[in-house]
Amino acid sequence: MTSASWHARISCGRDTGAGFLVTERHVLTCAHVVACSRTAPVTVTFAHGTEGQIPAQVIAQGGWDGRDTDPGDLAVLELDHPVPMKPAEFAAPSDAYGDPPRRLLAYGFPKRYDEGTLAEYRATADQLIAGEWVQLEAWAAHGQPLVPGFSGAAVTLADTGRVVGMVSTAARSPEIRNGRMLPAQVMARYWPRLGELIPTPEYGRPEKERLRQLVEAMEGQRSAPPEAAPPGARGSDKCGSAAMGIPPGSSEAENLGERAAPTDPQTRHNWSPGSPECSPERLYLDAVGPLGPPLPPQGFGSLWDAVWYLLSEVPDPGAVTRFAARLADFVDDARTRSALRNWPLTYARREPTPAPVPVPRPAPGAVHAWSPILVEIAPSGSGDGHFLVEVSAYNGRHRRVVGSRRLPTDRVRPYALQRIDEAYHELEPGARELIAFVLPRRWLNADVAHWKRSADDDSPLGAFAPLVVMDLERRRSGGLQHKLRQKWRHLDARPTARLHRIDCWAVGQDQVKLTIGLRRAADMVGFATAPRANGVRRLFQAGLNAAVPVMLWPRTGCREEHGRGQPSASSHPEANRQAGERCRGTEFLDRLAEHLADLPPRELPSYVHELREAAYASDSPEPHWAYDLALLWEDPDCLPEPVGHLHNPVG
Q: Other C-beta atoms within 10 Å of 532: how many?
């Protein structure tokens, strides 16, 4: 150790201890050394004595309650003025241990040693006692014991002078030459700023400083009193459409999340104080994954406690990045949320950025792949009317989760719209966006294409970008995903796709036979009416189970009310034609066949988007035939490797 200038003697009333300078104005010591700071002045004198006695005040403590076995025996002192000396430097947390053991020094101020003296010790093991202390034992049988005056002394490596901890207690008997050290990584739990000074793998001081500031902002939000919840914010004890206060099977059940659902992205709906989803333990488990290190026995006292544990104790450097990204989903402020989600990209890459690889522009008429924004909405499974909502963005085969939350019904829409907008930050400038809603089967007729895009844009989401829906159950089925891939290979090898019509009068046909027939010979299925009534739902399910990649229908329109002349499925074709010639569903299918003729199925989302734009902008007094056009379109290669939700919704 070349210099001891940053070692300090701490006086508080009749008590004397040690401390050490960590910034130009901050000194660390034990909380019990300055226990009388409310009634007695605190002064700091550095070992070389050139600065004299400097007044100081306690600005932070670790929560020590006064007993020897209480954790958090740390105090942070702020000097009356900065001092012109180099502060202590810290070693990596693991440097205190080794085989053979590392020789450690403590610089204390016992009685009759006003200038200070040294004690030689070593760490017994790297195992923490009660998750807080490391045991120290004397380096030799003779030498300076740890006695009063050493409390708060920096424990340093003898060969480098770097700090590994702080003396906190000594043996009660002078014959027993051991004591306890508060290791540096434990000290950083109680004063987050210290974490910036302690070396950790992968991340340097600027990255950790920025993360600390973001977490502190989040902690401030967490401790703020909760705002009044919006009307209907509490979940009911019902499931499905009944959770929205809507009778199952009614037409209103299709408007997922419509009841009391504000569309303002700035509406405070992301944070619930004390939410189990946002507990440090829950976020930690999400970050390390099912095969990662278990929770520490003592748990975490704060969000920063969990962050610092990931930085200093978990070998996977990506775990803290995942923690920050998951934490971002519970932040109301858009800038803070973005900064957490993108940490540490702003700071971590110090090497020169390579020149971007030029991307060749596609030839005229060429088609390049979709870049989907995936919105998965599923019942939580907990029986309380909540939904699991996960929004992701794809770039090629890379998937980035933008948000994943368990929400009551009336918060689904504003949350999804807000995260869809943020997902665009993950796309390349020239990407062809595709908004894909993955919905439970009974909600595939939801009006997601008509959702107002944002608070200041009343235009429908379906007019903003190509938008499709997908079936949640089918997306999770390995067999149906395999069949879908086979269907797309056949479609790619065929010049045109075959549209199979299911008119209103055909609702009585056998579901199983239809499934087999569609599996063999249908590329696309068009329905004349929405899948509301049981008869149509059965045929709709046949199309899904037949792995038909494209299905189209009108969300409203014909409701199978064809009067007394409605024929059955066994009627003569001419009678069927006559019964349906004034049917709105038949007209819809005719127009659909006309517009989809000779179009490649992979480009249907784009063509349907253009149809929706024309329908929404139409000045005709009569509704445009495509105003309520719904498109189910699923290409597994466009959305590879379906992944379940991050959380067990019940557990």
A: 19
Q: Is 240 helix (H, G, I), strand (E, B) or coil?
A: helix
Contacts 24+ apart (CB under 8 A), 396-401: 396/369, 397/640, 399/374, 399/640, 399/641, 399/643, 400/426, 401/325, 401/646
Among 480, 451, 479, which Cα is nearest to 463's? 451
Asked if residues 85 and 133 have their Cβ atoms less than 8 Å apart, the reply is: no
| Number of neighbours of residue 304 by Cβ within 10 angstroms | 22
pLDDT of residue 535: 86
- Tell me what pLDDT residue 574 has: 53
* pLDDT attached to residue 453: 93
Rounded to an integer, what distance in angstroms lies between the CA atom of residue 33 and that of residue 46? 16
Give pLDDT tens digits for 578-629.
554 568 888 999 999 998 888 889 999 999 999 999 999 999 888 899 999 9
H or E, element range at 303? helix 303-313
What secondary structure does DSSP assign to 561-623, as a single string? Answer: ---TT---TTS-HHHHHHHHTT-HHHHHHHHHHHHHTT--GGGHHHHHHHHHHHHHT---SSP
CA distance 648 to 255: 26
Residue labelled with tokens 């099912």: 290
In order of 216, 306, 577, 619, the CA distances from 573 in angstroms are 72, 70, 6, 37
Give the DSSP letter of residue 90: B
Pairing of strands 432-439, 398-408: unpaired
E-assigned strand segments in 415-523: 432-439, 452-454, 457-460, 467-471, 499-502
Residue 648 has a pLDDT of 41
Q: To 10 degrees, what angle do helices 534-545 and 511-521 make?
A: 40
Nearest of 34, 45, 305 to residue 152 by alpha carbon: 34
d(CA 533, CA 528): 13
pLDDT tens column, 461-474 = 999 999 999 999 99
* Structure confidence by residue, pLDDT tens digits, 549-558: 999 999 986 6
Q: What are phi and psi of 136, to 5 degrees?
A: -110, 145
Please give the Cα distance from 434 to 631 (Å, whole number).
Answer: 12
- Would you call 120 helix, strand, or coil by DSSP? strand
Q: Are 438 and 377 contacting, i.e. CB atoms less than 8 angstroms apart?
A: yes
What is the average pLDDT score of the chain?
82
Going by their DSSP bridges, the two strands 54-61 and 75-79 should be labelled as: antiparallel
Please check whether residue 189 is in contact with residue 165, taking contact to mean a CB–CB distance below 8 angstroms. Answer: no
Of the candidates 521, 513, 585, 499, the one whose C-alpha atom is nearest the C-alpha of residue 542 is: 513
> Cα separation of 651 and 647, whole Å?
8
228-264 exposure pattern, b = at least 16 Cβ within 10 A, e = fewer: eebebeebbeebebebbebeeeeeebbbbbbbbbbbe
Rg (CA), the chain: 33
Omega cis (within 30) before 280? no
Q: What is the dihedral of CA 294, 295, 297, 299, to 10 degrees?
A: 180
Give the SS3 label for residue 139. Answer: coil
User: Which 3 state secondary structure label does DSSP give 349?
Assistant: coil
**pLDDT of 78:** 97
Residue spans of the chain under pLDDT 70: 1-3, 171-174, 221-277, 346-368, 383, 557-582, 641-651
Q: What pLDDT shows up at residue 50? A: 74
Encoded tokens for 578:
């006559």
